[in-house]
Each structure stands twice: as C-alpha cells, then as structure tokens.
Design brief:
The chain is of the alpha/beta class and 573 residues long. Helices cover 35% and strands 20% of the residues.
C-alpha cells in the first residue's frame, strides 16, 4: 500500500510517500523550486517522492491533503456574515478551496496523463489534525497530550487533543480570528520584518532587550480561564478584511495584518531598513516572553485536564525553539516530542500518518528521530557535476576524508558539508550544513561577511555529540532536530563563543553514532578537545541547497574555503 501525503496551496508546500509502515521520502517543494517557503502545488516534491519509491502516480493507493474545505464551514459562513468580510477575501478563499478539491486534475496535468488513470482514493484531512498526527504518531509515546498551534489552517489556529495508540481525540480548539501565530506575525511585521517566515528573527533579537512591554501586549492577546486565549481584534485587520496573501510564482507574501491601534499602543511601526533601536529590542523581548507564557498557559491546563505526563507539539508556533527549551521547566509535563518539520511542511507526513494510523488503524511506526528523507547524490553524480563545471577536486576514502576535513576545521576554515539525504524540515542537521570551529571568537562575523550576509543578532547553532551534552549544557536531553534552546554552562562560554548566544544559550542538535557527521565531530573532538561544531544551513538567502550543482554554485559565489560533496573535496587555491 502506497500513501502519498501532500501539503498544497499553502506556505511550505511539501510531499511525502509511505509504503506500508515505511516512510520512503519526504521533502519541501522549495528545495526543488528554489523559492523560500514555496506555496502552490508541490509537483516537484511529488515527482521526487515517487521516484524514490520507484513507482508512478497510477500505483498510489491513497492521497492525503492536509486541508479540508468543509471543516468549520458553518463557522466560516457565520464569521463572514457577522463581520462583513470583504468580497476579495471571500473570492480568495473560494479559489483556494477549489484548488484543494481538484488534486487529481493537478496531478494529471503534472504528469501528462488522463485524470481517470489515477486510481488513488483522495482524503482531505483537516489541517490541525495533520499537525497532531505529525507529532503524536511519530513520537515514542503510547499515550500523550497533543498541541497544534500556528497561524491558521481550516479556520482554526490551535487544537488540543490526546493520543492513545492508534487514535487521536480532539478536546478543544481556538477558531478564527483568534491566533497566537497571527499575534507573533503581526508583531514581526510591526518590527520591520515583512517576509513570510521572518518570525525567527524576532526570536533571535529577543535576548538583546528587556520585557518592558509585556503589560501592553497582554491587552492584545488575552489568556482565558479555560486554558486557551483570544485576541482583541481592534489591534488587527484580519477579522474584517481577511488575511490577504499572494503567491506570486510560488513566493508567499502576507500583507500587513496589524491595525493603527497597535501603533497607538506601542508607537510607530519600524520600517524595513530603519535602525533597530533599544525600544524595538525590548518589544521583541516582550513578544517572546508573552508567547512563551501563552504556550505554558495552554500546556499546564492541558496537563491538568488530561493527567498525562507526555506531550507532543506541532504547528508553526512549535518552531519557537526558545519556548520549547523551557517546557519541562515551566509546565507539569515530564516528556516532550516535537518533530523535525513541526511547521506546515510536516502536514504532508501528518496527513499520511493520520490515514495510516487513525483511519486505517494500522500499527504505529517506530519513533522518528531521523529527518534524513530528502534527496541524495552519489559520488558518481557529484564527479559528473564537477567535471561538467571544470572544477578541480580530489576524491578521498572515508577515513582520509574525515582526516582532511577535521584538519581544515582546526585551521579555521569555513566548510560546505553535503552528505547523505537532505533533511526534512527548516533546519540543517549536518547533511546540508556550513560548519566551522565553534571556538573561534570571530566565527559569526566571518560567516556573515563571507557567506550568510544576515542580521548580526541572529545566533549560530552547535551540533554536539550526544554523550557530551551534560558537560556543556545545563540540561541533558535528546534533541536531534535542533528544536530546543538550552542554557550553556557558564564555564563553557569562553570555550565555544561562536555558538553561545548573547543570553548564554544555544540551540543544540544532539548527534548520535552511525552518521558520517558524528564521525567528523568525533575526529574534531580528538584534535581539539571540543565535541561540538558550529552548524548553519548550507545556503545564501535561498532555500537550503538540494543538489551538488546548487552546493557548488553557493560555494563559488561566496568565500567558503572548502566544499565537501560526499567523498569529493573542492578547495580554494
């Protein structure tokens, strides 16, 4: 049995393919289209997944889509009538809904075949249920509380539930126009970061300020006694005007969603390119603080309501790694699981798992601690690419490669590292990474000047051998997907300044044995005494590189010192 899961006509479009109880492949469309957060129909990701399964679209048994136009339909109608929602917003929603229900037509067009030849049964699964499934059914827990929290999907922004074995039971939800994601996004826009997905910039800026605007922000988002929340809609435009989004050539863009009332409360909004003042930093700190308090408010009520010790979390807000690192400290839960693709791309996998476990009642898969489900290139493919571009290279055996690269790291080189299958999710996890010695005090400036060309306040992350976590971090945890930020021990700050943020924290990735990335970090540890590498995504203001050609192009247009493509090494003269 083959299940094709799709996230379509939404930011971070994606696809995955399952064969019985095996996840064969999963990837975001942006990796193929080369447009960040690509929105639309994920035809290239689907083609990739089918290719990895060695089948064609006519052999697929089920297709799941992580949207259900019929979900909350009566609530949509009531809201539209009550709030006199604009004709344009209604037309946009209708057009999007029509696309969602014509998936076989889209597939037929993509593959140049008759629609009738696609025999798969199509299942539309409500957006937040796919988020719930992407976390719980991938977790190690037999039973767990579950939280899905994001901007919006199918007219819902937040859903709480419980999972037990093969079933998920929804307990409650927060309906449009109330949304924690809208709260965070609107303040992100207010602070002068207008692009889709810029929220992580506010999270990175937050440690530079003080939480001086918490009381003002709590007028905007109101915590309720039932463990949920609502927005004061006068500070936003979306309740009446809708969320106006455009998908020009697949590039998602959200128009400003905060109202003049927000500026009356906090002062004039920062325009893109304006100086970042201390006030802006203080507002960022306050936004992060209130968001964390909201997440803990929801989770503590959920724990009391269910009595469960485990919790699984997904949705865009679940990508807030700073909040995630405080969950066990600030809530009464004892264990937490967050998938590698907690954002909307993960709903492609979530839809497939909802069908497989919840609907078909098949046995659970082993817990997923590996995000390497994307594209892979052989040494033969890589050599063909390098020869076609007339690039000199040397091919090493495995031991020679690890020796060569670890020596280069010791010499202070900046290295592009392209190994194995690419990661599913927004974070590079050692297969499509740029790596540097974390002991370098100048590493951040070096990376920003040579390659990344991004805001100076954004931190770089440490990849650490999992058996050394307790030596460097205040908390010991398995964090394979870089989904949590933890305090670094004070006595280690001076040793690893390049991956220690201004507030003394690091967004760690724990690396276990069995991967070449582990072997490289271990050899670096033997030479340096430090079991950590600085790891940042292999890209330059673009989606993470997916192919050897893209990796080579990024290397050539930046000042990277060395490029490692599987066993092939390119070095600057």
């Amino acid at each position: 049995m083959y299940i094709l899961g799709i996230n379509a006509y939404h930011g971070d479009s994606s696809a995955c393919i399952m064969h019985n109880d095996k996840i064969i492949a999963a990837s975001e469309e942006e990796r193929f289209r080369r447009i960040k957060h690509w929105a639309g129909f994920p035809s290239e990701a689907i083609k990739f997944c089918l290719g990895e399964a060695n089948i064609d679209i006519t052999q697929v048994d089920y297709i799941t889509i992580s949207r259900d136009p019929s979900a909350n339909l009566h609530k949509k109608i009531i809201h539209s009538v009550k709030n006199l929602v604009s004709v344009k917003a209604l037309k946009d929603r209708l057009a999007n809904s029509k696309k969602i229900v014509s998936v076989k037509g889209e597939l037929a067009k993509a593959f140049g075949i008759d629609e009738e030849s696609i025999k798969a049964e199509v299942k539309n699964i409500e957006h937040h249920r796919t988020h719930l499934a992407s976390a719980f059914f991938a977790s190690p827990f037999e039973e767990s509380a579950i939280l899905s929290i994001d901007g919006f999907g199918d007219f819902t922004s937040t859903m709480i539930a419980t999972g037990k074995d093969k079933k998920i039971e929804v307990l409650d939800q927060v309906i449009y126009p109330h949304s924690a994601g809208i709260f965070y996004t609107s303040l992100t826009q207010y602070l002068g970061f207008p692009h889709y997905g810029d929220e992580y910039k506010v999270m990175g800026l937050a440690p530079y300020g003080e939480p001086k605007y918490v009381e003002e922000l709590k007028k905007i988002i109101i915590f309720k006694d039932n463990g949920l929340f609502e927005l004061d809609n006068k500070y936003f435009t979306h309740a009446k005007e809708g969320v106006s989004m455009s998908w020009e050539n697949g590039d998602p863009f959200i128009e400003s969603i905060f109202s003049k009332e927000l500026e009356n409360l906090l002062g004039p909004a920062r325009q893109k390119g304006d100086e970042l003042t201390q006030k802006h930093k203080n507002i960022a700190t306050s936004v992060q603080r209130v968001t964390e308090e909201l997440i803990f408010h929801i989770l503590n009520h959920l724990q009391k309501r269910t009595g469960l010790e485990n919790v699984c979390i997904a949705g865009g807000v679940a990508q807030n790694s700073v909040a995630n690192g405080k969950i066990l400290e600030r809530t009464t839960f004892e264990n937490v699981y967050i998938p590698s693709a907690g954002h909307d791309a993960g709903t492609a996998l979530g839809g497939a798992l909802w069908l497989y476990n919840h609907i078909l009642e098949k046995d659970r898969l082993p817990a997923i601690y590996n995000a390497y489900t994307g594209a892979k290139s052989s040494n033969k493919d890589i050599e063909t690419c390098l020869k076609a571009e007339n690039v000199e290279y040397t091919r090493y055996n495995d031991d020679e490669l690890i020796e060569k690269v670890s020596d280069a790291l010791m010499d202070g080189k900046v290295i592009g590292w392209f190994q194995g299958r690419s990661e599913f999710g927004p974070r590079a996890l050692g297969h499509r990474s740029i790596i540097v010695d974390p002991r370098r005090t100048d590493a951040k400036e070096l990376l920003n000047s040579k390659i990344k060309r991004r805001e100076s306040f954004r931190p770089f992350a440490p990849s650490i051998l999992e058996e050394y976590v307790s030596e460097y971090f205040e908390k010991t945890d398995k964090v394979p997907f870089m989904e949590k930020v933890y305090p670094i021990k004070k006595e280690k700050h001076a040793e690893i300044p390049a991956v220690t943020h201004v507030d003394g924290t690091g967004r760690l990735q724990t690396v276990e044995k069995g991967d070449r990335y582990y072997d490289l970090i271990e050899r670096f540890r033997q030479k340096s005494g430090t079991p950590i590498l600085l790891n940042t995504s292999f890209n330059e203001n673009e989606p993470i590189v997916n192919t050897p050609k893209e990796a080579l192009a990024c290397y050539l247009r930046t000042d990277m010192d060395m490029l490692v493509l599987e066993n092939c090494v390119v070095s600057r003269k």
